[in-house]
Design brief:
The chain has 3 helices and 5 strands. It is of the alpha+beta class. A 5-stranded mixed β-sheet has the order 3-1-2-4-5. Strand 4 (107-116) and strand 5 (119-123) form a beta hairpin.
């Protein structure tokens, strides 16, 4: 019989500016967003009835988003090589969160980033 997994998610926000390189359209000019980020983690092992304390997960996510908050994303080293698209912002957050959560028994399932209430991108690592 297969075991299920637990899944929890937290949300947070950051504001930043960016522009897209090698793109023809209005997004090639610097502009800003109030980004919404959803982080979903999963696992099977509960400690004291919790997969991970929501407070810890929110604190770790905030620490990563603080690097991006009120910044021109194009000036961050990661985005000097990769265009600061919603997709690459997901990847950036995923990679940073993977490092800060490695001592916990959770796996990141999904990072989703909304540019606005009508569109978002997600990164899901295939295992």
């Amino acid at each position: 019989m297969k075991k299920g997994v637990f899944e929890i998610k937290v949300f947070d926000f950051f504001s930043s500016a960016h522009h897209l390189r090698n793109y023809k359209g209005k997004c090639e000019r610097i502009h800003g967003h109030n980004w919404k980020v959803e982080l979903v983690v999963s696992g099977q092992e509960l400690e004291n009835g919790m997969l991970i304390d929501f407070a810890i997960l929110k604190e770790k996510l905030k620490g990563v988003l603080d690097i991006l908050d009120h910044r021109d994303l194009n000036t961050i080293p990661f985005f000097k090589k990769k265009n600061p698209t919603s997709e690459n912002i997901c990847l950036y957050i995923y990679e940073k969160m993977e490092k800060v959560l490695e001592k916990y028994s959770v796996s990141i399932k999904t990072v989703t980033v909304w540019e606005n209430e009508k569109q978002c991108a997600s990164y899901v690592k295939v295992r």
